[in-house]
Each structure stands twice: as C-alpha cells, then as structure tokens.
Amino acid sequence: MVDRVKHILRGIGLLIGLAGTPLLAQADFLVKTVVLSKEVNKRNPQGIFRPPAYCEKDKNGQAAIPVVQTSQTSQVIFWTKIEATTTGKIRHSWHHKVDGTWTKTSEVNISIQPSPGYRMWSMKSLHADLHTGEWMIVVAPSKEPDRILCITRFTVK
C-alpha cells in the first residue's frame, strides 16, 4: 500500500511540474500587430507611416506597403506587439535590397516575457544617399531564426 501511495504522489508531482509547460511549442510567440513609425512615446508608436504596415502572411503581399520619406524623418521604428506564452528572445532582422539582392544590415534580439501583448521595437537610422529603396524586416525567435513569424516590407524614398 505504501509503494502505491508513493507511486501516485510521484505521478501528481510530475503532472504539477508539467502544468507550466506549453502544450504546443509552436504557439510560443504570435505577432499580433506591426507598425512602422517615426518614434515611440510611452511604449506606443507615434507618427505612423502610411499605408499601414502588415505581416505578409496576413495579406499575402496583396496590400500597398508603407513609404518612408527621408525628407520627413531620419529614422524608422519597427514596433511589434507579440503574444508570448514563454520567456525568450525575438529577433528583428533588417534587410535592404541592393542591386537586386537582399542584404542584412542589422539584427536586434529583444527579450520577451509571457504576455497577451508584449510591445517591443527596433530602430534604423536613415540617410537619403544610402538607404533609399526596398526594405524588409523579418521577425523570428532568436533561437530559431528560420521559423519566420512575420515579414514586413516598406520603401524608403
């Protein structure tokens, strides 16, 4: 009888230990909102570029992309709201299309905590003579950079 009680208690302990583990590992991060803006104030984007930014997986590349005018700003901020079920890091990879080839210009790894809407952002300084043309930002878990959560494109003029 004592052995059976110990066995049951071990099983209960195992279940309690697993209770905090997400059942679907692929559901750990979900991009809820993306915005391209001139600045962030009190954790919210300000001076939002038009047309609005979006994740290509949501629109299938069928919507107009934002245009950033270097005559109006010297930086662009990529602001994201992500639903997270676990602690980790999210990567914003910035890519510029030069002579028909996408080139990674920078990569920012941002810590994230469990939240229904964790807000984070990264920034790129712009110079009219260097940065005009097509841009793409890829959002992925830092530990799994090939698991793309979102791709956002914009044009710099």
Key traits:
157 residues, alpha+beta, Immunoglobulin-like, five-stranded mixed β-sheet, four-stranded antiparallel β-sheet, 9 strands, globular
Describe the 3D structure.
This protein has 157 residues and is α+β, with helices and mostly antiparallel strands. The chain contains 3 helices and 9 strands; from the N terminus they run αββαβββββαββ. It has a single domain, classed as Sandwich (Immunoglobulin-like), CATH 2.60.40. A hairpin with a 2-residue loop joins strand 5 and strand 6. It has helices spanning 2-18, 56-59, 128-131, and strands spanning 29-41, 44-48, 67-68, 75-84, 88-98, 101-112, 115-125, 133-141, 150-156. Residues 5-25 have low confidence and may be disordered. The longest helix has 17 residues, at 2-18.
Topology:
Blueprint: H1 2-18, E1 29-41, E2 44-48, H2 56-59, E3 67-68, E4 75-84, E5 88-98, E6 101-112, E7 115-125, H3 128-131, E8 133-141, E9 150-156
Parallel strand pairs: 3-9
Antiparallel strand pairs: 1-2, 1-4, 4-7, 5-6, 5-8, 8-9
Structural class: alpha+beta
- Which regions have little confidence, pLDDT < 50, spanning 5+ residues? 5-25
The count of helical stretches stands at 3
Share in β-strands: over 45%
CATH architecture: Sandwich
CATH topology: Immunoglobulin-like
Could you spell the SSE succession in H and E letters? Answer: HEEHEEEEEHEE
Mind telling me the CATH class?
Mainly Beta
Principal-axes shape call: globular
Number of domains: 1
Question: Based on DSSP secondary structure assignment, what is the total number of beta strands?
Answer: 9
Helix content: 10-25%
Ends distance: 78 Å
Overall pLDDT score: 86
What characterizes the major β-sheet? Answer: 5 strands, mixed
Order of strands, main sheet, comes to 3-9-8-5-6
Rg, alpha carbons: 21 Å
According to CATH, the homologous superfamily is Macroglobulin (MG2) domain
